Here is the input.
Amino acid sequence: MSCPRHFAARAAIAAAALSMVSATAIAQGNDTNPRISPTVGSRATTYTFHLTARPDIVGNRNVRTAYAVRVSLPGHPTCGRSFTITKAQAGETVTVRLHPRRLGGWCRGRYRGTVSLSRGPRCAKSGLACARFASVILPAGTFRFRVR
Here is the structure.
């Protein structure tokens, strides 16, 4: 006789595997069409970042799905930014405002941005069974902008 906890863990693993397959198919078929405006600005510009969510990015008891956005200025690691998007519906346009830093604003140069879709297990601290499966990180788009 099996323990009910084992059944719950197996069901969680199966659900996670199915949701990973669908996210993989969606993310690989279409990128998120990331874009930023303006494409050229000053050190004091507030940039507006947009992306179109492909899979639903919602809370799930067993699976954590998010877009990770990284903005970098090659050769200047302290000038970059990163943030995550943890809630969106498939097809929804998500908007994030990128404000200049309080002291000195943006560094001058040509920035590169990458978007990745990550999906992995979410384990509660409550001691309940945790789905065990490998996290998946998929490329989901790139963008560029310039600070003069």
Observations:
- Confidence is low (pLDDT under 50) at residues 21-29.
- Residues 4-147 form a domain with the Immunoglobulin-like fold (CATH 2.60.40.10).
